[in-house]
């Protein structure tokens, strides 16, 4: 079974092809291609939804041809076409959904709408060190920060989530306060490598709340307070205080993610942790989690770095794994809708 995946939820256009074979628990990745719109949105300091949608239209078919060429396949070889149904930017999602359903109708092949976060959640299965069920998942993608117990495909229990800003938003908003470019999170992380993470005492919200929820809005406010105190000092790009504040901000975010993840492992009794989503590429987070999990005798798994960002491979994979597990059937009804706001637990109930 060959599944083509199309991802267009925000500012990356991703297309990939996977093949699921009987007796093999994880589908094989046959080819994938990704186009990032970062350069286009940099001039505006963030994603412009209308521009994102128009660029997806330009990119998706050339990327599809590229993927098929990589895999030595033809459109007629496809068995199912999966696409991101939500959450994300409505216009951007409509591009991927429309192309997927048009291809399905033209080829007489079924289509499958996939939850963007489930794609991230399952993406470590494409790594060189894939996990095994069950595990605790730390999902840190864009506007989402969640801890979940994962017992199998489609079997997810929410353990905790952010009540306001997500970790990715804390990175991006703090970077903007420091005058860093878009995308802010990676820029802040690079600057943090030059700074002293103990230079500023920043809060760790909800660290001792007794539950597994997150909150990063207060941290953003604390960074704003420090920026105002430092004033013109931060106007100098080479200012040590600038790097120190970036390092202290990163340390606060990483500390909360680390300690909540370890608490989730203790609460569930599970011995395996999966980290997925864009923030999962953060080097400091990986270093801290690797060390803590080694001390605790816990296995930790990550996606390959190139698959931490939004991509078509995770959508194709999630589609193939859902079909293999029998938790969702593809559709030959090519009328489609998208869900810009779509809680993962709601998606799982609908598929049950």
Task: Write structural notes for this entry.
This protein is an alpha/beta fold. The chain has two domains: 2-124 and 308-350, ATPase, nucleotide binding domain (Nucleotidyltransferase, domain 5); 133-302, Nucleotidyltransferase, domain 5 (2-Layer Sandwich), CATH 3.30.420. Helices cover 43% and strands 19% of the residues. It contains eleven helices and ten strands. It has a five-stranded mixed sheet, with helices on both faces. Strands 8-7-6-9-10 form a five-stranded mixed sheet, with helices on both faces. The two termini are 22 Å apart. It comes from Paracidovorax wautersii. Its EC number is 2.3.1.234. Belongs to the KAE1 / TsaD family.
What number of domains?
2
- Write down the CATH class of the largest domain: Alpha Beta
| Largest beta sheet: strand ordering | 3-2-1-4-5
Helix content: 40-55%
Q: By helix and strand content, what is the structural category? A: alpha/beta
Radius of gyration of CA atoms, rounded to a whole number: 20 Å
Count of strand segments: 10
Q: What's the CATH H-level homologous superfamily of the largest domain?
A: ATPase, nucleotide binding domain
Gross CATH architecture of the largest domain = 2-Layer Sandwich
* Count of runs of 4 or more consecutive helical residues: 11
Please state the oligomeric state of the protein chains shown. single chain
What is the CA–CA distance across the termini?
22 Å
Uncertain runs are none
Question: Could you give the order of the helices and strands?
Answer: EEEHHEHEHEEEHHHHEHEHH
Identify the overall geometry.
Answer: globular
The fraction of residues in strands falls at 15-25%
| Biggest sheet layout | 5 strands, mixed
Arithmetic mean of pLDDT? 95
Q: What's the CATH topology label of the largest domain?
A: Nucleotidyltransferase, domain 5
